[in-house]
Specification:
heterodimer, A: about 75% helix, B: mainly alpha, 15 helices, 2 strands, globular
Chain lengths: ~270, ~325
Amino acid sequence: MHLTRTARTVLGVLMAAGLAVVHVPLLLVVLNSFNADRSFAWPPSGLTGEWWVRAVHSQGVRDALWTSLKAGLAATAIALVLGVLAAFAVHRHRFFGRQTVSFLVVLPIALPGIVTGIALNAAFRTVLDPLGIGFGLFTVIVGHTTFCVVIVFNNVAARLRRIAPSLAEASADLGARPAQTFRHVTLPALRSALFAGALLAFALSFDEIVVTTFTAGPGTETLPIWIYENLARPNQAPVINVVAALLIALSVIPVYVAQRLSSDSAGGRL
Amino acid sequence: MDPSLDGDQGLTGRQPVTSPKESTPKAASRPARPARPGRPGRFGRPGRPGRPARAGARLRLAALLTPPLLWLGLAYLGSLAVLLLSAFWTTDSFTSDVVHLWNTDNFRTVLTDPVYRTITLRTLGVAVAVTLIDALLAFPMAFFMARVASGRWRRALLVAVLTPLWAGYLVKAYAWRVMLGEHGLVNAVLAPLGLSGPGYGLPAVVLVLAYLWLPYMILPVFAALERLPTHHLEASADLGAGAWRTLRLVVLPAVRPALFAGSVFTFSLSLGDYLTVQIVGGRTQLLGNVIASQVTLDLPLAAALSAVPVVLIVCYLAAVRRAGALDSL
């Protein structure tokens, strides 16, 4: 298809405009975190680092960050185990209900977060509460794990599909036992997929708010919940800007790592 | 991945062999192939699909499957079952306590109350609008990335498009709350033109949701366009088709499954959203908000209501499945 010069220019302009729209709101948040004006009226009246200092010393932000880290790490660890097991089962074996397993793994992200959230909420209320297990970090971790499994599963399953079976065959021909083949051949080939899956799962857990809202008790506040709770409070707005700016800055890391880890058009969340 | 695209690529891979120029040297090297029939490696594959499962393999499978199935079966399916069950219970209107009395009143309310019908239609409209906007925005951007930009630029653009995906849902919705505010950037830019921004309300919800889900649409479309064999476009041009005709008859059919795959995300995420609506929606009521606000007041009604987006999504999935969308997810 021969694109005329005009067509190329039009496409280029659309691309630039699209990118501008995508990035301007984020840049504005970063800029606003230095905005001396509390109401963030445009244009800024002056620049200040005061909000950053205040955010660093905010106990609420620190506690929320700590809770988010704990929930994210625990959910990632459990999801890593469950996702790998499910991926191996679906990839290495053919059995009745194989499609159902793949479907079951994907279901928690295919259905809207609010449905997952209130389903877990209802279940915890009717089952766990009578057992004396209240809403808290534990229920948040259970909720997060449920939708993190699919991320690990997808990454590992995609990699398993791409590993040439001849590698394992060669290993077996050379006399390696299945366990040795797994340790020396399969695991190294899977390593970057495991890492990517874990990273994506952690990022998803760190960002998740809907399921968290319905599974966290009153005392458990993750960072997104903290932001959301404080959105309505005008005197917290500067600190929210700083936290948001920080999260935007940190978001570059997973993209960078994902690009390094895989040559294909990676970085896709799913 | 989309099977039809894969088929096309298989064709491309074989094409050079049959092309007159290269046929002679390839043909010469051919006899090497039949020399190794029945590759010995075929045998040693442990537990490959299709082979009869031995007792050991069955045991291993059970060990692999039990933990994830227990977790997802208990924690997730169990929860969904509790939710579905509770839709058949009632709430005491004085104490807000759930009364375990089996009835179908909640579903009747959801289906017949005109308020819920309006909200459902509005939510559906938002989801369709967001999907269309994203498709219209994503196509030229993905096309530029995959077909016009080259090499390092393509990678840089991909990173530029993907980075916001990671900035976090809440951060982005919050960014737009600041942008759309009375003294925000949107009004400041439009004021000299004598215009004003949409403010908080239904248009803002559509705008912000389209913004949030845009990368989910760009990614699959970009991947499909990148996979599209160049000689398909060349053949179309050789046969005398102009750029528009090629776009309509060659590019769009190849990209359609990817567009549908992206639409699964934009559509389903829009149907369930309630935070964006609360952040920039003003008084707008969508399904997600109604469900969220009913959870503590009247769980059985919220449960019955949440069946609506689930049914809509399942219908949508069934519809796009025929277009091959699910294979390219």
